[in-house]
Design brief:
68% helix
Length: 192
């Protein structure tokens, strides 16, 4: 049986791209990078930015887009390229604002700019929670930090963790994971 190779069409419908992102299709992500990055790069480089900053802003914008499209209630009310452009434009404006630059952005794309302020706020809150969780996980110590990272982040089995850390059986490792998770929750919620 021969392998069937997916060939990326020259143009894809937005719904197909969104569905591909939801399903973890690497072709959809690649298409977004190849098709949408040039306009974002142009925007940022022509407005006091560097190519490296454009890459960072685009990456963050794609992450925001991914977070948004993976929610069941997501409805795309504009073109996908317009939506991503608006996200990246706002991220760049915030970045310029943080630097204390006085600015006015010029863009020649004539995109309609949907309001993504609420999405950016949710993303910022989520980042704060991730930072708190990382801090709690760091202060947890060993072997708890390793157990929880292996199980929840690397998706390793309890048997794998048992073998790696030298527990007598997977049930003992599972009991330790439960205790570690309780400690992590306490550390997380006790943070200010």
């Amino acid at each position: 049986m021969s392998k069937i190779r997916k060939i990326l069409p020259k143009s894809r419908e937005d719904a197909e791209i969104v569905e591909g992102m939801r399903n973890g299709d690497n072709d959809a992500i690649s298409y977004i990078y190849k098709s949408f990055y040039p306009s974002i790069s142009h925007l940022i480089v022509n407005n006091n930015g560097t190519e490296e900053e454009a890459q960072d802003i685009f990456q963050e914008g794609v992450m925001l887009l991914y977070d948004k499209v993976t929610h069941d209630d997501f409805v795309l009310s504009s073109r996908l390229s317009t939506f991503l452009y608006a996200i990246c434009r706002r991220l760049w404006l915030k970045s310029l604002s943080k630097k204390g630059n006085s600015f006015s952005i010029t863009d020649h794309e004539n995109f309609e700019i949907p309001d993504v302020e609420e999405d950016l706020q949710q993303h910022k809150e989520l980042e704060t929670k991730f930072d708190k969780m990382e801090s709690a996980l760091e202060s947890l110590g060993e072997p708890c930090s390793t157990i929880l990272r292996e199980f929840y982040i690397k998706n390793k089995s309890m048997q794998y963790i048992c073998d790696k850390l030298g527990y007598t059986n997977a049930d003992n490792a599972k009991n330790q994971k439960y205790k570690c998770l309780q400690r992590l929750k306490k550390l997380f919620f006790d943070q200010k």
